[in-house]
């Protein structure tokens, strides 16, 4: 499981976009996002760098905590 700080999560639509992108990357991914703190807990078989790059490319800069 990865815990990330994700910037620019402004609304529920942002959360939905992030969830969908991670599910597209790994259909078995489990995603929990706290919008107010910007923290995301992600359980996936994908590499940490792959997840961070995906979110950053979407406009949500992500870094591990």
UniProtKB/TrEMBL annotation:
Q: Where is the HMA domain?
A: 1-63
Name the domain of life: Bacteria
Per the record, a Pfam family? Answer: HMA
InterPro entries registered for this protein in UniProt: HMA_dom (IPR006121), HMA_dom_sf (IPR036163)
- The molecule here is called Heavy-metal-associated domain-containing protein
């Amino acid at each position: 499981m990865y815990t990330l700080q994700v910037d620019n999560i402004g609304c529920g639509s942002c959360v939905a976009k992030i969830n969908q992108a991670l599910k597209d990357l790994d259909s078995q991914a489990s995603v929990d996002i706290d919008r107010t703190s910007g923290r995301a807990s992600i359980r996936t078989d994908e590499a940490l760098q792959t997840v961070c790059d995906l979110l950053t490319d979407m406009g949500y800069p992500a870094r591990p905590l």
